[in-house]
Amino acid sequence: MAAILCENCSGQYHYTQVNQRLEISCMLLLMMLGKVFLDFFMLQVKQKNVKVSFMGYFCVSLALLDFTLLLSISFIFYFEDFALWGMRFTKYHICLLTQIISLTYGILHYPVYLVAGLDYYMTVAQTSQFPKRGQRLLYVFAVVVIWISGFFCILKVPAIYEELEIQNHFSPYQCPLSASVQSYSVSCAMVLLIGTALLACQKEVLTMLLSVRVVSLASQPVLMFSYVSNNNSTCFKWQLLTRLLICFLGTWAPFVVLQIIILFLGARIPAYMEMNIPWLYFINSFLIAVAYWCRCHDVELTEEMWSTDPFVSWKFCFMPFNNENTEPADKPGTVIVIC
Question: Where is the chain membrane-spanning (predicted)?
Fold first, then answer.
């Protein structure tokens, strides 16, 4: 009788563990499905007439890689146990693939933001002399090199591979996924920088917000702020910082609040979810604002220069507004910030 009971317990334990792995596979599949949908949704709603940039190419590559991972997970989940090219695939590989992608995403934040920042610093003032085709090829090459380097570091570094083996050996039915230290540090740095800038410009920001008026321009509602022309270099950069902050927060304020909540709660998001296109476009706008502020005296006021950001309009941070097509009539010497 005891032996029968023990055998039943063992069978029940195995059944529970199998169900647990199935639930984890379903969860990973659904999360990747949601992420892929969000990726392509952001690529669809962004402005189309935007200048080519490294970050734009990297976002497209990320969406394609996420879609490839989703297809791979779905294929393994459906067929459960099969052989392909002499290799056997089971539901264990759903977890393994996600872990490899997660570790790769986690180490790419610094290089991607560094290359994107240098790209905007060099091109925001239209100083680059690269032809369009050469520039596109350079961006494609940089994206490919970053991805290959990331996967090479994860798959070829023995310490990382051994850590994966240990995790999967001691918790084969849990699929532990790591969070990105790089993403956490970047998030902390951005919140700190934005908070510092707001504190430094709080008087100017409050003054501009109190003077805001909603007007109609080309049948679109826009916000009009008071504009004071000043030729002093220091004062100009101070005023520009205020306008850049308002433009940036006018679009990304909910995202900033979300970052503060995540940091406050100490939530650890898996790296394969943390590297997403909304987050990259949020960083993208921040890097563009920094580039504009650093090279404000070199900015050429041309229409092509303003089509840099897919989500934020920076044009009226630099140009005083003078248009007779607004309702009601506007006073001369104003600046429009489109949010």
Answer: 54-79, 91-116, 137-161, 181-201, 240-265, 277-293
Long-range contacts of 327-334 (CB under 8 A, 24+ apart): 327/215, 327/216, 328/215, 330/215, 330/224, 333/227, 333/228, 333/229, 334/224, 334/225, 334/226, 334/227
> Considering only 31-35, 95-99, 184-188, which range has the smallest mean pLDDT?
95-99
Residue 327 bridge partners (DSSP): 216
Per-residue model confidence as pLDDT tens digits over 269-303 = 888 888 999 999 999 999 988 888 887 766 665 55
Residue 295: φ, ψ to 5°: -120, 35
Is there a contact between 247 and 208 (Cβ–Cβ < 8 Å)? no
Find the mean pLDDT for residues 304-330: 58
* Long-range pairs for 158-166: beta carbons < 8 A, 24 or more residues apart: 160/103, 164/96, 164/99, 164/100, 164/103
Q: What CA–CA distance (Å, rounded) separates 274 from 66?
A: 12
CA distances from 12 to 6, 8, 169, 213, 333 (A): 10, 6, 21, 68, 77
